[in-house]
UniProtKB/TrEMBL annotation, chain A:
Its main location: nucleus. One of its GO terms (cellular component) is chromosome, centromeric region. It comes from Platysteira castanea. This is Centromere protein M. It comes from the Eukaryota. Keywords: Centromere, Chromosome, Nucleus. It is found in: Chromosome, Centromere; Nucleus. It holds the Pfam family CENP-M.
Automatic annotation (TrEMBL), chain B:
This is Centromere protein L. Its main location: nucleus. It is found in: Chromosome, Centromere; Nucleus. It comes from Platysteira castanea. Keywords: Centromere, Chromosome, Nucleus. GO terms for cellular component: chromosome, centromeric region; nucleus. It holds the Pfam family CENP-L. The lineage of its organism: Eukaryota, Metazoa, Chordata, Craniata, Vertebrata.
Length: 131, 288
């Protein structure tokens, strides 16, 4: 399911299946996309931040078209205890690999992989700095 | 201190194309005259090969290479080096003046980050600015690359860096009436190219920056973000367009203007070194 921002329209609430993973897409060429994501985060229930949220930064291939500081995105990931993935959608190889990663994460979040839950992502987020 | 404003006057109000240059190997300031002769011979040879731009009347290209002692940031910086190509038409040789056809200069303003880590035989002048035909830039560049084993790359300026520039320069104190602060955005994903030009009264822009900046002389990314967000919000209120989703391609203030393709124009002598310091930093980060 794709949405340009949150919250999702409430009219469809009872038709909506359970949400297992939220991927926030940020286009490094658009400051607006970062602000949009920041505003949408406020509408997400706290329980999602236990491994069911991830940030996907796109357009990283074009360094000279950067409108967002990468530090700002990494800080967002830290603040919300969620992984930040970087990719370049214009390159097919990277697009495919990224889709596979997201699919894998979704399988884990949906509980399809025995022995691994979304909470695993949270513990993986901890840096070696913290130890 | 900018030194004698007369000598740097030629730098102002010209559109300079920017390049980053890796350190020059065994460049000797005492041999500038020799270099001028060698470069002149090289250009003449290139023209023989038919790679030159001029056709018709035979033209001599005269090369001058000079040192600009005052054009540097600190004592650690190398003084700037200026290369000028002039044309003298052989036809009317009597009292015709040489016509300047191309200028290029290497400089470093507070480029310590680079020069600190470089071995003895290297001269660090990471920023190269050119004005004139691309064919001459290419010839001069080739000669320097072959002679000093260095590498030139066009210096592009990202929207992120353009935001820093407009925030810094809009906040500059200027004596005379200043020109408007202008930002040009390119709208993405349209079949026809569409640019939006957003012009702000310079006093309004400075007033806004003054409310945002906390410590005079210091600028943080947060402050630049707040400044830009205010401009975006104001525009959205009036036109319902999110400029933050577009690509910032050019900024223009009374101090200087800069284009994302790496073209700058410095308009005010007072801030010459400040602008060059910022550009030196960009050049160095492209090299490293």
């Amino acid at each position: 399911h794709l949405a340009t921002s949150l919250p999702l329209p409430s009219e469809r609430d009872h038709f909506r299946p359970r949400i297992d993973l939220i991927v926030f897409m940020i286009d490094i060429k658009s400051k607006y996309s970062l602000r949009n994501v920041e505003a949408s985060l406020a509408h997400v229930d706290a329980s999602f931040f236990l491994g069911k949220v991830c940030f996907l930064v796109t357009g990283v291939g074009r360094v000279n078209a950067c409108s967002i500081e990468t530090n700002a995105v990494c800080k967002l990931g830290e603040t919300y205890c969620s992984p930040v993935l970087f990719c370049e959608l214009e390159l097919e190889g990277i697009r495919v690999v990224t889709a596979q990663r997201l699919l894998r994460m979704l399988q884990i979040c949906a509980g399809h992989i025995p022995g691994v839950s979304a909470l695993s992502f949270v513990s993986l987020m901890r840096n070696s700095d913290d130890d | 201190e900018n030194g004698d404003p007369q000598r740097t006057a030629f730098l102002l109000r010209k559109a300079w194309t920017l390049y980053s240059v890796t350190p020059l190997y065994r460049f000797h300031r005492a041999r500038l005259r020799d270099y001028a002769r060698l470069l002149s011979a090289f250009i003449a040879a290139e023209k023989q090969k038919g790679l030159a731009v001029e056709v018709g009347v035979e033209l001599d290209i005269k090369v001058a290479v000079s040192s600009l002692a005052d054009l540097r940031g600190s004592e650690q910086d190398q003084a700037a080096v200026l290369v000028q190509l002039s044309m003298r038409s052989r036809a009317s040789s009597r009292n015709s003046e040489d016509k300047l056809v191309w200028s290029g200069w290497f400089c470093s303003v507070y480029g310590d980050d680079l020069s600190e880590n470089v071995p003895e035989d290297f001269t660090c002048l990471p920023l190269f600015l050119t004005h004139g035909a691309e064919s001459y830039t290419s010839m001069v560049g080739s000669w320097f690359q072959k002679t000093f084993d260095c590498c030139f790359r066009r210096l592009a300026i990202s929207p992120l860096n353009l935001c820093w520039m407009v925030a810094m320069w809009a906040g500059c104190q200027l004596d005379r009436a200043a020109s408007a602060v202008e930002l040009v955005f390119s709208m993405p994903r349209l079949s026809q190219p569409l640019d939006i030009s957003y012009a702000i009264h310079p006093e309004d822009a400075k007033a806004l920056w003054d409310t945002v900046q906390k410590t005079p002389g210091e600028i943080t990314q947060e402050e630049v973000d707040v400044f830009m967000d205010c401009l975006y919000a104001h525009f959205h209120r009036h036109f319902k367009i999110h400029l933050s989703a577009a690509k910032l391609v050019k900024v223009s203030t009374a101090v200087a203007s800069a284009h994302c393709d790496g073209i700058v124009k410095i308009l005010h002598n007072q801030y010459l070194l400040g602008v060059l310091m910022l550009l030196t930093e960009l050049a160095i980060s492209q090299i490293q």
